[in-house]
């Protein structure tokens, strides 16, 4: 848009008014300055709800030859004390372990500070190789000269004769290449170009024990990070189970499998199938109710006499509520009563007991009067 004979401030305000939803959202002019090469910027106060401290910005270009003004762009920019959204955090830094399922994989970035090269893969230690005897030769550190290390001159220019490294402790060597202690104990000389056999054995044992021949192993930072996470987690000393364990901690439990290395001084693995921590890394001062030294509770006797649910020794007499008679039921009972009368008369004639006859007649009369309501 090219305009002639216009006031740049009025032009910038008109641009903002055309962009804003309401004219009340545009405030007073804050500043107008030249950015260079004919580019000018004008800023106005913003009164948009939720954008406190923000400013309207309009960029104009002034063509001196054509004496024209051109609108480049308009936008909202934050000023001092503006209400800003939180800083952007990459998605990888926002993820939590609970966000992953068993089928998800994030991978490990190259140069992860939690890892370092294992023996046999380190480029900063010279030619780290395994000898024919199976002894791992880690080579020389790259900063060996800074630490005052010296190598045997008979090993060549690279100073790696047999992987031996000599420090300033060797300054007391005699002319025949032996230190006083080595001469007394029959140790090896520096001319052999090798350290004592125990050094190689110890190195090989350490590499095999801690499996340091892997391509990458945990660095000091990785071990410290894991130790902090485990110790402050639910398997550390601050868990609820530890507070209720009554002093029975994992360091004295027979089901605790200790770890090796630095982490073994603080952690172990629980191997009790009845413990809620089974198969998990626990701190040595963690505890639960399944400690190996806790005795089981006393078992109750096989038979416990209980109060019977029903009393068969007593009979409760319950008074029944009189039933309501209906004409149909009375008719049926009268018909059934006629048959009973015939049988009763036969029994009366056959009986010789006068007292029994009187009781039978009275009973029959009482039943009949109760049915007829008389």
Number of strands: 12
Distance between the termini: 120 Å
Structural class call reads alpha+beta
**Strand and helix order:** EHEEEEHEEEHHEHHEEEHH
Radius of gyration: 51 Å
Judging from the principal axes of the Cα atoms, what is the shape?
A: flat
List the strand order in the largest sheet: 1-5-4-3-2
The biggest sheet, with number of strands, parallel, antiparallel or mixed sense and barrel status, is: 5 strands, antiparallel
Spans of 5+ residues with little confidence (pLDDT < 50)?
Answer: 125-191, 355-374
- Which band does the percent of strand residues land in? 15-25%
Helix content: 25-40%
Number of helices: 8
**Mean pLDDT figure:** 74
Description:
The protein is an alpha+beta fold. The protein is 25% helix and 17% strand. Among the domains are: 2-78, Nuclear Transport Factor 2, Chain: A (Roll); 115-217, no CATH class; 220-283, no CATH class. It has helices at residues 8-19, 91-94, 180-185, 197-210, 220-231, 240-243, 327-350, 354-372, and strands at residues 2-3, 26-36, 39-46, 54-63, 68-78, 115-117, 129-130, 136-137, 216-218, 256-258, 267-270, 281-283. Helix 7 (327-350) packs antiparallel against helix 8.
Produce the secondary structure layout.
Elements: E1 2-3, H1 8-19, E2 26-36, E3 39-46, E4 54-63, E5 68-78, H2 91-94, E6 115-117, E7 129-130, E8 136-137, H3 180-185, H4 197-210, E9 216-218, H5 220-231, H6 240-243, E10 256-258, E11 267-270, E12 281-283, H7 327-350, H8 354-372
Antiparallel strand pairs: 1-5, 2-3, 3-4, 4-5, 6-9, 7-8, 10-11, 11-12
Helix pairs in contact: 7-8
Region (Disordered): 103-204, 319-374
Protein name: DUF3027 domain-containing protein
Biased composition (Basic and acidic residues): 111-127, 167-176
């Amino acid at each position: 848009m090219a305009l002639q004979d216009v006031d740049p401030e009025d032009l910038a305000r008109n641009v903002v008014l055309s962009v804003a939803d309401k004219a009340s959202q545009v405030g007073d002019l804050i500043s107008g300055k030249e950015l260079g090469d004919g580019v000018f910027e004008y800023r106005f106060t913003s009164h948009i709800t939720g954008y406190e401290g923000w400013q309207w910005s309009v960029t104009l270009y002034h063509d001196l030859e054509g004496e024209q003004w051109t609108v480049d762009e308009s936008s909202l920019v934050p000023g001092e004390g503006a209400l800003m959204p939180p800083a952007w955090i990459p998605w990888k830094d926002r993820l939590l372990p609970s966000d992953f399922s068993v089928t998800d994989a994030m991978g490990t970035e190259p140069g992860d500070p939690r890892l370092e090269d294992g023996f046999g893969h380190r480029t900063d230690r010279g030619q780290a190789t395994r000898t024919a005897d199976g002894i791992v030769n880690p080579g020389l550190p790259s900063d060996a000269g800074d630490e005052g290390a010296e190598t045997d001159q008979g090993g060549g220019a690279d100073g790696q004769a047999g992987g031996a490294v000599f420090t300033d402790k060797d300054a007391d060597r005699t002319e025949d290449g032996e230190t006083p202690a080595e001469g007394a104990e029959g140790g090896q000389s520096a001319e052999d170009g090798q350290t004592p056999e125990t050094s190689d054995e110890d190195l090989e044992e350490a590499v095999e024990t801690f499996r340091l021949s892997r391509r990458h192993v945990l660095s000091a930072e990785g071990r410290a990070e894991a130790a902090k996470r485990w110790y402050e987690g639910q398997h550390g000393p601050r868990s609820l189970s530890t507070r209720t364990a009554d002093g029975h901690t994992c360091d004295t439990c027979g089901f605790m499998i200790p770890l090796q290395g630095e982490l073994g001084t603080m952690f172990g693995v629980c191997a009790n199938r009845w413990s809620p921590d089974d198969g998990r890394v626990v701190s040595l001062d963690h505890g639960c109710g399944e400690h190996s030294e806790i005795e089981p509770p006393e078992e109750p006797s096989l038979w416990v006499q209980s109060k019977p649910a029903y009393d068969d020794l007593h009979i409760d007499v319950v008074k029944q509520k009189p039933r309501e008679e209906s004409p149909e039921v009375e008719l049926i009972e009268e018909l059934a009563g006629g048959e009973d009368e015939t049988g009763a008369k036969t029994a009366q004639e056959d009986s010789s007991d006068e007292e029994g006859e009187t009781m039978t007649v009275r009973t029959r009369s009482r039943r009949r009067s109760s049915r007829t309501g008389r």
